[in-house]
Amino acid sequence: MSENTTNRKMLSLVLLAAGAVGLVVALYLDFSGSGNAMRGPLLLIGAIAFLIGLYLFPTVEHHRSIINFIFLFPLLFTFAVTVIIPLLLGIFYSFTDWNGIKFSGFIGLTNYTTMFKDPAFIWSVLLTFLFVIFNMVLVNLVGFSLALLCTSKLKGVNFFRASYFLPNLIGGIVLGYIWQFVFNNVLVQVTAAVSGHQNSILANTKTAFIAIIVVYVWQYAGYIMLIYVTGLTTVPKDVLEASQIDGANAWTTLMKIKIPMIASTITICTFLTLTSAFKQFDVNMALTNGTGSVADFMGSYLTNGTQMLALNIYNTAISKNSYALGQAKAVLFFIILACVSIIQVRISNKKEVEM
Amino acid sequence: MEMKKSRKILLTVIGIIVAVYTLFPFYLVVMNTFKSANSIVSSPVGFEGISVSQLMTNLSSVVNNSNFNFWYAFGTSVIITVVSLIVLALFGGMAAWVICRNKTKWSTAIYMVFIASMIIPFQVVMLPLISTFRDVGNFVGISLLQSIPGIVFAYCGFGGAMTVFILTGFIKGIPYELEEAASIDGCSPEGTFFRIIFPLLTPVITTVTILNGMWIWNDYLLPSLMLGQNGKVKTLPVAVQAFVGSYVKQWDLILTAALLAIIPMVIIFLIAQKQIMNGMVEGAIK
After folding, report:
1. CATH of segment(s) A118-354
2. Where are the domains of chain A?
3. For labelling alongside A354, which of A117, A219, A261, B113 has CA 20 to 30 A away?
4. pLDDT value of residue A33
5. Going by C-beta distance under 8 Å and a sequence separation of 6 or more, which residues neighbour residue B152?
6. pLDDT of residue B285
């Protein structure tokens, strides 16, 4: 037993030392700028050896703390490198002339003033707000109606539920192209037969915007429906029966009992549609890629008639190579979303207090 | 609570109309993969020009297309999704357990940062993320961009917050007496976690895996930025996007590619329909 402990202690110390040496050597190779291909693997092996050494370290009182550290480390490390550091860097870069690789100096609020002077960007922001409002109303209305349908005593309810949900499984890029086909090849034939025009609705800015809303509602309503279905099934049966006996018709039951009882579900769905509509990117990119002409907006001619905020940020940075400007827009985007989320938390907290 | 018969019929008809509407694009995709490019343009909806041999031609021209490289993209997507899900479930569970069972200032602070980070949109971190990954990759000599481990690393970072959030809620409900009993019996903390807590997490890990899996499998922006549009490594959505870009209006090829991208998801949905729908709802409500 004691020999075992000594062995373990030895092994732990050896691993700790080897790990530390490995880390130091690897970091030295990194900082010295040598292109030694071994430094990456060495760093990894060093870190792992160090952690194993730490794990084997023979201590009773600190063992729990060591385990806590080892358990937290992987997720915290990846989280810091992928979210926290880029977020801080991103806010910092938005005040510089960063070009995606390096920056040469601070330019203060220039990026922010530039973007507010750009009619194309203002258009994108306004369009996004319009899109969000339309979607919030439509997705919730459609989702709620479908949920009522799916909780009624009809045959085939399970089939309906599954088929309404199906669009949600498929990624926006693929969906966007499928709908592009529907609009450009199928719907065109219908409109041609009716009115004689051969114009796709994606060719006109206004109708293309409506098309994006249609696709988005088609994709998202099924998901929102599922959440409403869960909410509606929590409405107690006896309350519904009591109202029936009191002679309430379906409409009164809906307005006076079902809707008030699922108020918290409505809040959840409203904010879910709100934030996801704000972030809409894939469908926008695949369906129109933001194109569409606007004859006159703030005195200039625009070619990004259907470009929403997320796509505008992407195009500014990736296609036009203005990384700092794109980053500044992204920071604004973040601020808008943060405000929305804070309002949501406020509202749901208030509701909980009232109940 | 019997509905009138006429109303029942009316509701059923509405339900069927909506179902036809939601399924119509899928019908179009399936139908048109059986047609040649010419018949797709002349009759996109009807049954004219359908033949199984044409389906085989379309499939083989897409699968064997060197630009699309279907099996390679499919394999890449599967590996990235599966490995990310395992890593997230394991590391997420470990972190959530530590956060939940240690009531110190540190663990509360970490938890708060995780929760707060859930409102961060991807757009605000994506540009610095690429440059950070490039710099770190150059610095340590391990390529994080255009590599599968790099993407898994990124998904672990981005999915971590939500995973921890959902798992913590569940672990709170597991009685602490279980762990005390184990530790009295001489079980080490790590043993307690892996032998007792982790197996108990199965239902909630299913939920988390469904949520993360749908997101990672369908995600376009992160892999397209990290792997590049014309890089060697491609996930399925990135490959579809690149393919469509190079075959504008060749609907026979595009729709066949779309079908191939849809099929795996639909098959999984048909197998695990209940779990997926429940998982999506649970994830939203929490």
Report:
1. 1.10.3720.10
2. 2-85, 118-354
3. B113
4. 67
5. B80, B83, B84, B87
6. 74
